[in-house]
Task: structure prediction
Amino acid sequence: MAPEVKFTDILKANIAIQEAKTRLDLADDPELVDAAIYELAAAEKRLNYLLRQAREAASG
Result:
């Protein structure tokens, strides 16, 4: 059984993606660029996970 996904968790994940994109846009050091890229990738994976869990919960 899939864990319950709250709409607020999905909203927070979207906000985390936007914040990571902003940090990437503003990064002026190669290490900060790398960190922002990893942060963005992690936030996107979390959102994908939450959406997948929400779909599974809704379908079954």
Q: What stands out?
A: The chain has one domain: 7-59. The CA atoms of residues 17 and 41 lie 8 Å apart. The two ends are 9 Å apart (CA to CA). Residues 30-59 form the longest helix (30 residues).
